[in-house]
Design brief:
Domain ABC transmembrane type-1: 45-330
Helix content: 55-70%
Shape: elongated
GO molecular function, one term: ATP hydrolysis activity
CATH topology of the largest domain: ABC transporter transmembrane region fold
Number of strands: 10
CATH class of the largest domain: Mainly Alpha
Bound molecules: adenosine-5'-triphosphate
Strand order of the largest sheet: 6-7-8-3-9-10
InterPro entries: AAA+_ATPase, ABC1_TM_dom, ABC1_TM_sf, ABC_transporter-like_ATP-bd, ABC_transporter-like_CS, P-loop_NTPase, Type_1_exporter
Keywords: ATP-binding, Cell membrane, Membrane, Nucleotide-binding, Transmembrane, Transmembrane helix, Transport
Largest sheet: 6 strands, mixed
Strand content: 5-15%
CATH superfamily of the largest domain: ABC transporter type 1, transmembrane domain
Structural class: alpha/beta
Main location: membrane
Amino acid sequence: MRPNLDSISDNKKTNVRASFQALRFIPRFFKEIWSVSPQLFLVNLLCRLINSFAPVVILWVGKLIIDEVIAQVAATDPDYTQLWNYVILEFVIAVVSDVISRIIAITDGLLGDKYNIRSSETMIRKTSEIDMSQLEDSEFYDKLERARQQTQGRVGLMSNALGQAQSIISIATLIAGLIYFEPLLIVLLALSIIPLFINEIRFSGQQYSLSRSWTTERRELDYLRYIGANDKTAKEIKLFGLTDFIATRFRNLSEQYYSINKSITVKRSIYSALFNILGVICYYGAYIVIIRSVLLGEITIGELTFLSASFNRLRNNLQTFFSNFTRITESALYLKDYFDFVDLIIPDQDKNFLELPTEIKIGFELQDVHFGYPGSDTEVLKGVSFELRAGEKMAFVGQNGAGKTTLIKLMLRFYEPTQGAILLDGININQYNKAEFQQMFGVIFQDFFRYEFTLRENIAVGDILAVKDDKRIDNAAQLSLATEVIKDLQDGYETQLGKRFKKGQELSGGQWQKVALARAYMKDAMVMVLDEPTSALDAKAEYEVFERFIDLTKGKTSIIISHRFSTVRMADRILVLEKGRILELGTHEELMKAPRLYAELFDLQAQGYK
Ligand SMILES: Nc1ncnc2c1ncn2[C@@H]1O[C@H](COP(=O)(O)OP(=O)(O)OP(=O)(O)O)[C@@H](O)[C@H]1O
């Protein structure tokens, strides 16, 4: 259910508390910024410290100038030396303060950029450590989304928070001036500013709550924006006339957000305006108090200008301080999302793992494996048991959704079986370090990714450390027939693929598949897995690819998933899956003898080619 204003108000109290609690992340945040560049951070702090005294000093020199002007006007024998000294002093302070402000802005920008790079990299690395099952969990994805989305916000948070520290010193010095001359002014100041602060806190809590509860919808909006304005989807969108459908869906969803947000913003502005009027009344009250003191001869005209300007400045500073404060608590809440994500505990990370075998002696054994995807009640695999012997080439066959890819994902430990076990040479594969275990495999999935990098990099994805190894890249390209693709490319291996970047060249589906296949050949993996690697290849290319594959993987444990039986029959044994269960297992000849699914599907395809 989407939130309305009432539900947001209900959350208000907890959100205000949460806002304050989120401030506890600020010290850690600063520690991270410090570690990014201690020098820049120190320069920034020092400059802010110096500049925090500027307002009160400038006002004070202003007071001296006015008093001096009045004294010299009244003097019978005027001497302007002191007056000009004051003017020069004020000028120097103004120039120095301006230069320092610029240094602050520059160091803010540089620190922000550096921190941005660091935190984005941390997120990329952390994401790779996280289990597939967690990445596919939508709640988790929302958290990731919020953490990512706020990268820019964190830069603003940094300068805001440092600015606050600077403001506190400025405010303290201005307040000291007021207390020295007229303590009553402090009461008026508090009266003018505190209601505004409470108002800010209240509404910012609501706005955060709204934006947080809309993370999922925002993802949907991003998705609609993406499919609605994208070269990859343009073909279908035009052809099926989907523009209206997508645009309307986008508008409807956006408008709901707009109307809730609008009503919060309008309320916030109305209350702010009312409290501002209270502030103006207090200001003029203070003005009257100050004028009265002048008339009674308690203070000079210079002091009048100093006090009224101090009061006004304080009010503005405090207003900015409080609104920045709410902005900081808001950003700190996103900071919480970021730290929560970075601190995610990866299970078993420190466990003592067994050493991986350097060669496979017996093979894999699946014992009564059951599996259902997280968050789903359906069992996709229902008691699968079989052996994949060392050096054997096995094909998985079955209708769409039978569970072939899922079986591979379990063998690769992207997911853990909900029941049963998978053994490698008699040892449960969960006894090995997951990342190291996965390095044993050379895998190409049917939904392999088309990286918009160069052709060289696209092939090297299989073993990215060898990206500069021309010999290996060329060898892999030859084996997968990707060399045929290169012939048509202007810059050979250095050609940028895809259309997103300058001089990018798009490939056909089959050409992309050849490039992806080359990845599997990039590393000398112990186990090769090809999940429908040739579906987009023409018949001749497919035949050649498989001939090479069979030749190259002689004696190597491998799995092929394919819907083409001409390919499947080349495997040593064929495993036929149906609705998550093993229906048949044997050589092509054995299975052809039994009048079951394999023989039926094979004949069906063979007839099609007659
Ligand atoms: N990430 C996922 N989350 C939830 N369910 C999934 C997920 N991936 C696959 N499934 C479901 O698991 C079942 C088996 O899918 P799987 O991809 O293993 O089938 P397959 O035999 O490889 O099919 P195909 O021949 O179409 O590639 C399907 O019903 C599918 O809907």
